[in-house]
Request: fold
Amino acid sequence: MRELSPVLLFAYNRPEHTERTLKALADNALAIHSRLVIFCDGPRTRNEAENTRRVREIARQAEGFRSVQVVERPSNLGLAQSIISGVTEVLEAHDTVIVLEDDLITSPFFLQYMNEALQLYADDEQVLSVCGYTFPVSGQLPETFFLPGAFCWGWATWRRAWTLYEHDAEKLLAEIIRRNLIYEFDFRGTDPLAKILQMTVNRDARADSWATRWMGTACIHGKMTLYPGRSLVENAGFDGSGRHANHERRFDTPLADRSPRVERLPLEVNENVVRQHRNLFRQWRIGDDIASRLYYRIAALLPAAAEKYLYTRLVRRRLRRQATAAIARVIDGH
Reply:
């Protein structure tokens, strides 16, 4: 059997979630042939010490894999730094990684899909990553497809792609603005990623997001990600237990009951699937507030170029209100 990608699991202070994630992962047929590395972050406060201790105990008892390595961080790095440093460390020794967090439940076919896709597109520079989660869009989806950018729920990448990762959120946001890519970064005006990235720039604790920087990296380099037509990942973290996630059902999607056929596709974004996702994201944002409802009613009447112009103007104005000096200079054209 060919060498399989190592699997990285990032855990913190949710022992029950970690246990469920490990059980689902071990149910994968390829688990017994896969190396598993579990990164356990340290507690932020004394009150978290017991749960982080229990997580480490569960990690040490993990079985059903070719090997299990547990990395216990002596202090709290936070999710962003934990993932960035962990992925970087493992990719120094391996060509690929598969990455999970402690609240992701995988289908038994997750590892098969990931490893097949990593092998098939290993040399295709335009493909930045592989994702196992599929959004609950309306209508049928192909077996696999490409979307622009990247996503972070059950994903994999290559060393060649991770070298592009831009750690500096301010530099990244400035480049997105300078290249007039706000509309594209925000999934063609339907997902407020630029706003989240600015929160990261402003050191807002609610948005210390490594993933938004990964998505921004994909945007400025014009990269795309492969997805399955039926989800191989369920996010079980929207139960109020996570730091950034409250109770939420909009992301619910049934797990696939078979492995998707991973066959070579043309190296281009699937525009039909882009439209399905934009429709879903628009529905979510229309429900957020009156201003969003008004904007999307107007945008629906505009040609694409005019919609991009309007959306970009509005977002730049919002970003300017809380911009750092460096971002303000870019927005103002200096």
Remarks:
- The first strand starts at residue 7 and ends at 11.
- The beta strands are 7-11, 35-40, 67-72, 96-101, 104-106, 127-131, 144-148, 155-158, 224-228, 233-235.
